[in-house]
Design a protein that fits this description.
This protein has seven helices and ten strands. Helices cover 29% and strands 23% of the residues. A ten-stranded mixed beta sheet has the order 1-8-2-3-7-4-6-5-9-10, sandwiched between helices. The radius of gyration is 16 Å and the shape is globular. By secondary structure, it is α/β, with parallel strands linked by helices.
């Protein structure tokens, strides 16, 4: 395990190299700390499940580097949903979309959907861009435990099992992203997090 400070200019490059070769890396985001793996390395994604003790029917969310990546991940995008997302992106909103066939099973829910978010933080944006526009990322903690808001917490709990931990100080948020999807033309909030449900519903009604 390498514990690296982002104040070291080489740290991010090392982390991206590890991810590109199938490793698992923990890093700060605009919400809580996440740990991620490359979509090109399903074995890394399976390791994340093992590290967290995550239930196999809970897919790993995807962070993207730019909104246009959505077209590569989802074959049938509800344009209104993306228009809504762009009111909160980059930011703490995850949208549920139909999954493209080529995506690994670890990011797909049983109903063949994926969760996608454009974060408001340079580290995951850079990582995602260097990995082709997307990186599978979930909170860096044991399932059922509070999400980590510092690299030290991750080191204490999971340090010996993660290939690289990037220390970027404390998270700006203690809440995860809010998760939404469209059902029968209406927004359903699956998890209320950093963005309030009433804000999202008001924006949807305005579209």
């Amino acid at each position: 395990m390498a514990y690296l400070s982002l104040e070291d200019g080489r740290a991010l490059e090392e982390a991206i190299s590890v991810l590109s070769h199938g490793g698992v890396v923990a890093f700060p985001t605009d919400t809580v700390y996440g740990m991620g793996g490359s979509l090109a390395h399903p074995e890394a994604l399976r390791r994340i499940y093992d590290l967290k003790g995550r239930q196999p029917d809970k897919p790993l969310p995807i962070l993207i580097s730019r909104a246009s990546v959505v077209d590569e991940l989802s074959p049938d995008v509800d344009e209104r949903l993306i228009e809504l997302a762009l009111q909160f992106w980059p930011g703490a909103l995850t949208v549920v979309l139909p999954a493209a066939e080529h995506l690994p099973a670890e990011v797909k829910a049983p109903d063949n959907t994926i969760g996608v978010r454009l974060p408001n933080h340079s580290i995951p944006l850079t990582i995602a861009e260097r990995l082709g526009g997307a990186v599978a990322t979930t909170s860096a903690n044991l399932s059922g435990q509070p999400a980590a808001i510092s690299a030290v917490e991750i080191r204490d709990v999971l340090g010996g099992q993660i290939d690289v931990i990037l220390d970027g100080g404390f998270s700006p948020q203690e809440n995860p992203s809010t998760v939404i999807r469209v059902v029968d033309g209406e927004i359903v909030v699956l998890r209320e997090g950093a963005i309030r449900a009433d804000e999202i519903n008001a924006a949807w009604q305005d579209l």
